[in-house]
Design brief:
The chain has 327 residues and is α+β, with helices and mostly antiparallel strands. Helices cover 37% and strands 10% of the residues. The protein folds into two domains: 195 residues, no CATH class; 92 residues, no CATH class. The protein has a five-stranded antiparallel sheet. Strands 6-7 form a two-stranded parallel ribbon. A hairpin with a 4-residue loop joins strand 1 and strand 2. InterPro entries: Acyl_Trfase/lysoPLipase.
């Protein structure tokens, strides 16, 4: 953050060397994934042989994207998995200190954690990691490098949106404080200040969009097939620091609807994305406070429906359609 520009943050800057993050990734990736709604690690591990998860991050020293997976030893347990995801979501300057990856072997590392938060770590064997957007805003190139032949690219911004933007003075101040003063990474400060990551983002959007016009046969895998999925031009966006539950919920529903229309196999179903989205994400989800429900093995909405006796209006009495399970 900007620290002493706001006098109210003086105490925070003094007592917290790394500052107070604007985005609390720990709540999402530790409190939620490990405690409130714990991930079934055994089931997840079983799926890694069928559909492995590859977490893409940006290496701030090596200046390249770094892929972390169970197969390559990037993570071996739930705690390390959440650390990898933390690194992949870590926006420089507003999401807390960088995540450091210990590149040494297990025998060399001993009991030292594989991944650890902390700014200004200069050990040669540590690779500071941050958000994938720096070196791979749309991480399809890593998928292709790993051998993927058909790649679906889910874009978070509507088609036609200018993703290059222009960095303001406050953004530059944040980068300077975080990348230069706290982490001594002048090359990263230069890259982000010059908006080179956004230029790369725009290039990737163009590349994915152009791939949609490919005449290559589906069975021909000499070159990878790319399918970009994005909201239509002019669609509402969820702002970066949005915290309103309804705004985020509506954004999720719009994204689901678009993905459904693009990916559903039955041609008769195409165009029904918004209707189906309301079945899987009914309006009634907003009628209760999930923080008041402490179930760990059932969805809060499932508990709410059982206690209140309600049935979402969008479900109706459709016997011919399987009633969705909302998680």
């Amino acid at each position: 953050g900007l620290g002493l520009l706001d006098p109210r943050l003086y105490r925070d800057v003094i007592t917290r060397p790394d500052g107070k993050p604007v985005l609390n990734l720990k709540y999402l990736l530790k409190t939620t994934v490990k405690d409130t709604k714990p991930l079934d690690w055994d089931k997840f591990l079983e799926q890694q042989t069928l559909q492995p998860l590859n977490v893409v991050t940006s290496g701030l020293k090596s200046q390249r994207s770094i892929v972390l997976s169970y197969e390559n030893g990037g993570f071996e347990n739930l705690n390390e998995l959440t650390d990898c995801m933390h690194a992949s979501c870590l926006l420089p300057g507003i999401a807390g200190p960088v995540m450091n990856l210990d590149m040494r072997s297990t025998s060399q590392r001993g009991k030292t954690p594989k991944l650890m938060l902390g700014n200004g770590r200069m050990e040669d064997y540590l690779e500071p990691l941050a958000d994938a957007l720096i070196y791979e805003p749309l991480p399809y190139r890593s998928a292709v490098a790993a051998g993927a032949t058909h790649v679906v690219v889910l874009r978070s911004r509507p088609d036609g949106t200018d993703v290059t933007g222009k960095g303001g003075i406050f953004e530059r101040m944040i980068f300077r404080r975080f990348l230069l003063r706290k982490n001594r990474l002048p090359h990263m400060f230069q890259r982000l200040s010059q908006q080179l990551h956004k230029k790369l983002y725009a290039e990737q959007v163009i590349e994915v969009n152009e791939a949609a016009y490919s005449k290559q046969d589906f069975k021909d895998t000499s070159n990878p097939h790319l399918l970009g999925v994005a909201l239509p031009p002019g669609s509402p966006e969820v702002v970066r620091l949005e915290t309103g539950r309804e705004a985020i919920f509506e954004g999720i529903r719009r994204g689901f609807a678009r993905a459904y229309d693009c990916l559903v196999e039955d041609p008769k179903e195409r165009g029904r994305g918004q209707i189906v989205a309301k079945e899987y994400f009914p309006d009634e989800i907003l009628d209760y406070d999930p923080l008041t429900i402490s179930e760990t093995d059932r969805s809060a909405f499932e508990v709410y429906m059982k206690k209140s006796g309600i049935t979402p209006k969008s479900w109706g009495d459709k016997e011919h359609r399987a009633r969705p399970t909302v998680r």
